[in-house]
Design a protein that fits this description.
Blueprint (H helix, E strand, L loop, with lengths): L4 E7 L3 E8 L4 E8 L3 H4 L2 H15 L7 E8 L3 E2 L4 E2 L13 H9 L3 E5 H12 L8 E6 L3 E7 L2 E2 L32 H4 L1 H12 L7 H9 L4 H9 L3 H25 L3 E5 L7 H14 L2 H4 L3 E4 L6 H15 L1
Helix pairs in contact: 2-3, 4-12, 6-9, 8-9, 9-10
Enzyme class: transferase
EC number: 2.7.1.2
GO molecular function, one term: glucokinase activity
Length: about 325
C-alpha cells in the first residue's frame, strides 16, 4: 500500500488541477484540464475520470496503482453523503452527488471536501502551516474560500458550510452582488474578480489616467495581475484598489482571529502571488483591528505550496480518511 499513489483533484471554476501523489506527499505527476460548465456541469466528473485513466495509460500504469481519489470542490459538502450542497461557480444544480459520481466513474474509493479546506489541509501537511494544528487558510482566487483547522481537524460546522470566509459580509450597505445571492461579501472585493471590478469602476470615473488605464484602453480588459503589477509601479488607481482590498481583508481576518486565535492565517490562491505588496497592507489593517493578545500571537503568512495546496490536501483526505 505504501507504494500506491493517490489521485488528488482540485476542482476550480476555470481549470481543474489533477496530480498523482505518493503516500508521503510527494507530487509524482501533475496536470490541468479545463472545467467544462456546459449543460449544468454534467461533463465535469466524467472529464476528470477520463483524464486520470488516460494519464495512467500514458504512464504505463494500471488503475490498481491508485489507492483512491480525493477531490476539493468549491462549495459546502454533506460529509455523510459526499453531496456538494451548492456550487455557484460550476453550473451544477444544488445537491450534486459528487462522491458517488467519482466512485461510479472510476471504481475507486473517493473522498470529497471543500476546496479551501483542502488547501488548508495541504498547507498543514506539506506547506506554510508547518504542522500547525490551529490554522486558517484563505484562498484568494476566482472567489474567496476558507478552511479552518482546529486541533488538527477541519471545522465543518453542522451543515458542512463552516469556513465560508468569502461570504462574510464586509459591506452591509451598498455592496456588490455575489454569486451566492447576497451582497457585499468579502468575495466581491478580495477575489481576482472583485479586484478587476473595483479597478474598472475606478477607471470609468472621469479623467481616469495612468498605467492601468492605458492597459485597459489598449486591450479593453484587465486582470487582477495587471492591477497588482500596476500597483507595484505606483499607479494611483491600482494602489487605491489594492488598499481597499487590504482594508476589507485585514478587517475580516482580524475578526476571524479574534474568534479563533489560530497559530497562523495562511493566504493562498492566485491573488496571494502579489506577495509583499498585499501582505504588508493586510498586516497593517489586521494589526489595527485585532484584539492585542490575538495580534501578538496569530501570524499571517503566504502559502508556500502555490497551486499544489489543493491537490495535496485532496490526497491527504484519502491518506487520512480511507487508510489512516
Amino acid at each position: 500500500m505504501s507504494n500506491q499513489w493517490i489521485a488528488g483533484v482540485d476542482l476550480g471554476g476555470t481549470t481543474t488541477k489533477i496530480a498523482f501523489i505518493s503516500m508521503d506527499g510527494d507530487i509524482l505527476h501533475k496536470w490541468e484540464i479545463p472545467t467544462d460548465h456546459s449543460n449544468e456541469g454534467q461533463y465535469i466528473t466524467s472529464n476528470i475520470a477520463t483524464s486520470i485513466m488516460e494519464k495512467l495509460e500514458k504512464l504505463g500504469q494500471s488503475k490498481t496503482v491508485l489507492a483512491g481519489v480525493g477531490m476539493g470542490a468549491p462549495g459546502p459538502i454533506d460529509y455523510e453523503t459526499g453531496v456538494i450542497l451548492n456550487a455557484v461557480n460550476l453550473g451544477w444544480r444544488d445537491n450534486f452527488p459528487l462522491r458517488d459520481s467519482l466512485e461510479s466513474l472510476l471504481s475507486l474509493p473517493a473522498a470529497v471536501e471543500n476546496d479551501a479546506n483542502c488547501a488548508a489541509l495541504g498547507e498543514m501537511w506539506q506547506g506554510a502551516g508547518n504542522g500547525a494544528k490551529n490554522l486558517v487558510c484563505v484562498t484568494l482566487g476566482t472567489g474567496v474560500g476558507g478552511g479552518v483547522i482546529a486541533n488538527g481537524n477541519i471545522v465543518t460546522g453542522v451543515n458542512g458550510a463552516a469556513g465560508e470566509i468569502g461570504h462574510i459580509t464586509t459591506l452591509p450597505v451598498g455592496g456588490a452582488p455575489c454569486n451566492c445571492g447576497k451582497t457585499g461579501c468579502l468575495e466581491t472585493i478580495a477575489s481576482a474578480t472583485g479586484i478587476v471590478r473595483l479597478a474598472v469602476e475606478e477607471m470609468n470615473k472621469p479623467n481616469s489616467k495612468g498605467e492601468l488605464t492605458d492597459i485597459f484602453n489598449r486591450s479593453k480588459k484587465i486582470t487582477a495581475k495587471d492591477v497588482i503589477d500596476s500597483a507595484r509601479n505606483g499607479d494611483p488607481i491600482a494602489v487605491k484598489v489594492l488598499n481597499e482590498v487590504a482594508f476589507h481583508l485585514g478587517l475580516a481576518l482580524a475578526n476571524i482571529a479574534n474568534t479563533l486565535n489560530p497559530e497562523k492565517i495562511v493566504l493562498g490562491g492566485g491573488v496571494s502571488k502579489a506577495g509583499k505588496i498585499l501582505l504588508d497592507s493586510v498586516q497593517d489593517y489586521f494589526d489595527k483591528f485585532a484584539f492585542p493578545p490575538v495580534k501578538n500571537s496569530t501570524k499571517l503568512a503566504l502559502a508556500t505550496l502555490g497551486n499544489d495546496a489543493g491537490v495535496l490536501g485532496a490526497a491527504w483526505l484519502i491518506k487520512n480518511k480511507l487508510i489512516g
